[in-house]
Amino acid sequence: MGSNLGRLITDYRTLVETYRARADELGVSRLEIDRLGGLPVGYAGKLLGKDGGEPDRKNKKMWPYALESMLGVLGLNILLIEDDVAAARTLALRTPVDRANQRFGNVSRLTPRLVAPPPQPVDQPSLTIVSGGQKQGRKHS
């Protein structure tokens, strides 16, 4: 089923429109997308309905589980391509990061000599039973 569906998706609305077009091309109903993707009944209808791609409306979004599920059901993949103009604009406007305050690559800076040694096992304390004279805390004798 070699479809020529390649599209540039730059916003959520275009993603929803692409999903709608692909579902129509495959002849798959919204309920069938729900069933095949393991989504709640009616969920694809809400996502792909006429108001589903409107950015100003408060409606359901497909992140992250439904996005992956619908990609699989509709036989689609996402390919990310760098936008050179947007990247250059970001680099020109950014405040450079102080690398001393960041953990790029999520590498711990702890070294073995800085880590405290494990505590030594402690002998069990011995218990001594002490018998007292008068009990305390009684209101009425």
Please state the CA-atom Rg, rounded to the nearest Å: 31 Å
How many strands, which pairing sense, and closed or not: the largest β-sheet? none
Roughly what is the average pLDDT, rounded to an integer?
82
> Structural class of the helices, strands and pairings?
mainly alpha
| Number of DSSP strand runs | 0
Strand content: under 5%
Q: How many distinct helices?
A: 5
**Low confidence ranges:** none
Fraction of residues in helices? Answer: 25-40%
SSE topology string: HHHHH
Approximate shape: elongated
Distance between the termini: 93 Å
Summary keywords:
141 residues, single chain, mainly alpha
At a glance:
Residues 109-141 are annotated as: Disordered. It contains five helices and no strands.
What's the topology here?
Layout: H1 12-26, H2 30-37, H3 43-48, H4 65-74, H5 84-93
